[in-house]
Amino acid sequence: MQRHQAPFRADVVGSFLRPDAIKNARQQFAQGEITAAQLRSVEDEAIRHVVEQQCACGLHVVTDGEFRRAWWHFDFFDGLEGVERYDSDKGIQFNGVQTKAHGVRVIGKLRFGDHPMLEDFRYLKSISGNAQPKMTIPSPSVLHFRGGRKDIDATVYPQLDAYFDDLATTWHDAIHAFYAAGCRYLQLDDTVWAYLCSDDQRRQIRERGDNPDELARIYARVINKALEGKPDDLTIGLHVCRGNFRSTWISEGGYEPVAEVLFGSVNVDAFFLEYDNDRSGDFAPLRFVRPGKQQVVLGLITTKNGELENPEGVKARLAEAANYVDINQICLSPQCGFASTEEGNSLTPEQQWDKVRLVTNIAEQVW
């Protein structure tokens, strides 16, 4: 069964490798050699080209590649009222490599406000042609998880209940603002659910005084509250990511520890799930996906390297997953974006597009 609405049988997570034109323009802007308007003009042209490339690969969905961002999440947080970015003591530790030392903290009442990424989406929509433009933003749980209580001003939010209420309201307002801007396909990117699957991360959560199972229930409530009143013609997906920085990762472990709460109670329209290697576990947790209610977009094609997967092997894994969830509730995508940060993963642009074409070719054969 083909799908003519989001998520599509062949879909993408969002980010693409930054072209040299963007890298050079960003450096020139940082050095004061070009203006913000000139930088945006370079970005506009690069985004127009990446949209054309996605369509040429057979996709019916397009993103802006996250070309205007340095990070998949911090740039969005920067645009929220009540949030401040700061230079932290150390970066985020991945498997053998560390990111730049940035963090965010809540210093005032959370509000969505007049967010600059609304205009970013409007531009994408204006050039998307017959393809479905998809906007990607971080999930609300991401803003809370990494810093927790210590990065939330206690004079602003003495009690975390009020903070979580405002967190949900902020994303509720974001959802409706993007809808008003013409968005009908929105993706929430979320590393936290994967951390809650990891024995090591769960240990660290307990050591800082939190209960990982209680956090799962809190985050499910926050997301569901944000989704209240969602327009029927707006598709919202949740991408669960185990970390993606220069082809490295953070967490490992199957979805079983969170499956019943995540798949059984979070009211998104689609789950984008990483399943590109053994770190992701087996398909058994998919038994909690509600029949007929939601789509499961399986990330069976890795973005961590350029080696192409065997199409027959991917088809076999799709058939295996169908033992736990109806094949007509399954779609296919790369496991993550190709450049969750501006540094990008360790593969070439040509290998990137070969991966995307592999997704569309397999989807066409299976469905």
TrEMBL record:
InterPro entries, per the entry: Met_Synth_C/arc, UROD/MetE-like_sf
Alphabetical list of Pfam families matching this protein: Meth_synt_2
Domain Cobalamin-independent methionine synthase MetE C-terminal/archaeal span(s) in chain numbering: 12-342
Matching Gene3D superfamilies: 3.20.20.210
Top-rank taxon, per record: Bacteria
PANTHER family: METHIONINE SYNTHASE (PTHR43844:SF1)
Name this protein carries in UniProt: Cobalamin-independent methionine synthase II family protein
